[in-house]
Amino acid sequence: DVARATDERTAIATVLPPRTFSGHTIWVAFADGLSTNLYFVGYLNSYCIDWLLRFKVGLHMTQTIMKSLPMPRLTAGNPYFDAIVPRAARLTCTRAAFADLWREVMGEDWDESKGATDPGERQRLRDEIDALVAHLYGLSRLEFNHILGTFPLVFPDTDAGRARREAVLAAYDGVAER
């Protein structure tokens, strides 16, 4: 609920484990199907969507703002949906509480090796989701690079920040080569 355009990120979405309580500042939404929930989580956590939200959010993430997002209603069989969902599943299903979600979405039993817990692997998966969403919206590399440049807390003007930004752009280039 509380979000500012000046924060490192404006929105953070996740899938809560079963039987988890959520307080009044956490928005809870349900989609038709577990795969769709994972698609939405990947989509909502992308820099492209966060960039859009920064134009809309003052201090609170309202339902009106969320409903105004240009969210493509993709389903299984769409190449973007089919690429985002398994990446979001690996980022989400990192412990046994998510075994049923993994089994339902991925069609195989979950074990600890399925979830991405290594920080480098997690970052690579997030970069790939960001790249997929940028391509979903038809953004050029230059346009996507501009969006990344509006996150100075994530991509500071340092060697590390520039390298981090180049890693996301390399993921963008990798998706373009498919």
What do these coordinates show?
- The chain contains eight helices and no strands.
- α4 packs antiparallel against α6 (about 120-135), α6 (about 120-135) crosses α8 and α7 (about 140-150) runs antiparallel to α8.
- The radius of gyration is 16 Å and the shape is globular.
- With about 180 residues, it is mainly alpha-helical.
Q: What structural class do you assign from the helix and strand content?
A: mainly alpha
Instruction: State mean pLDDT (0 to 100 scale).
Output: 89
Helix content: 40-55%
Strand segment tally:
0
Count of separate DSSP helical elements: 8
Radius of gyration: 16 Å
Q: Characterize the biggest β-sheet.
A: none
Instruction: Provide the succession of SSEs.
Output: HHHHHHHH
Q: How many angstroms does the end-to-end distance come to?
A: 37 Å
Show unreliable segments: none
Report the principal-axis shape: globular
Strand fraction band?
A: under 5%
Secondary structure elements and pairings:
Layout lengths: L33 H11 L2 H8 L8 H6 L10 H14 L6 H8 L12 H18 L4 H9 L9 H18 L2
Helix pairs in contact: 1-4, 4-5, 4-6, 6-8, 7-8
